[in-house]
From TrEMBL:
Gene source species: Aplysia californica (California sea hare)
Domain of life: Eukaryota
Assigned keywords, A-Z: Methyltransferase, S-adenosyl-L-methionine, Transferase
SUPFAM superfamilies attached to this UniProt entry: S-adenosyl-L-methionine-dependent methyltransferases (SSF53335)
Name the record gives this protein: Alpha N-terminal protein methyltransferase 1
Enzyme Commission number, as recorded: 2.1.1.244
Pfam families linked: Methyltransf_PK (PF05891)
Record-stated family: Belongs to the methyltransferase superfamily. NTM1 family.
Length: 233
């Protein structure tokens, strides 16, 4: 586990390490421009492929395609300025809420989203480790390119709160970078972990989530991490 105490580490040292993990990430994102390129670390060009891949993965779960998912209310987690809210969720769902830890992204989101931002009901400025989705509040909860910013215990508990936040027939979708090796990698520039796929799946299983479907995103450049989509309940 990421935050397991190392040899001779006291409880206070562990707490300091976890605090530093979150504080360093905050510091990194506070310095990033509120643009799609900023959200994607200079890879704005992959955004249309990403959104199209997400749309086709999501489609199978929608009521209109024979699934259980009503297109009523969605939650975008680690939403940044609302790239996914604007391009994926608002075209499908009646209303969307966003949760994002960085204040300047939250402040810029409505302008970035434009006129449809009237259907964004809430923008919660909070770390996911401290956030609880409204119980049975959402048909869809979408988490993308953010969960490497949570340490394992917080991630498992967050998954459990998401499960409670789903309405009947609702789905939690996770879309994250993964590693093909057996060990996770730490990026000290933005203070995040990239987990191997099995490691991320362990967190899902430990949270008691059921995996409905897993798919690899196609069409991304060869030099970026493999990205997987997981549909969960
Ligand atoms: C790579 S960007 C992705 C943004 C958005 N999901 C997208 O795909 O366009 C990561 C986002 O996660 C946010 N973030 C980082 N740590 C977070 C945390 N602990 N809780 C919530 N959001 C966090 C960052 O501020 C940033 O907006």
């Amino acid at each position: 586990m990421m935050a397991a105490p190392s040899e001779n580490e006291s409880g206070n040292d562990l707490q300091d390490r976890v605090e530093k993990f979150y504080e360093d990430a905050k510091g990194y994102w506070a310095s990033v421009t509120p643009t799609v390129d900023g959200m994607l670390g200079g890879f704005a060009k992959i955004s249309p492929t990403d959104i199209n891949g997400s749309k086709s993965f999501l489609r199978q779960f929608l009521k209109i395609s024979g699934g259980s998912l009503m297109p009523n209310r969605a939650l975008d987690c680690g939403a940044g300025i609302g790239r996914i809210t604007k391009r994926l969720l608002l075209p499908i769902f009646d209303t969307v809420d966003m949760v994002e830890q960085d204040q300047h992204f939250c402040d810029n989101a409505r302008e970035f989203i434009g006129s449809d931002s009237s259907r964004v009901e809430n923008i919660f400025c909070s770390g996911l480790q401290d956030f609880t989705p409204a119980e049975q509040g959402y048909d869809l909860i979408w988490c993308q390119w953010v969960l490497g910013h949570l340490e394992d215990d917080h991630l498992v508990k967050f998954f459990q709160r998401c499960q409670k936040g789903l309405r009947e027939g609702g789905v939690l979708i996770v879309k994250e970078n993964t590693l093909e090796s057996d060990k996770r990698a730490f990026d000290d520039s933005d203070s995040s972990y990239t987990r191997p796929k099995w490691d991320l799946e362990m967190c899902m299983i430990n949270a008691g989530l059921k995996v409905l479907s897993v798919q690899k995103q196609k069409g991304f450049p060869k030099d970026i991490y493999p990205v997987y989509m997981f549909a969960l309940q």
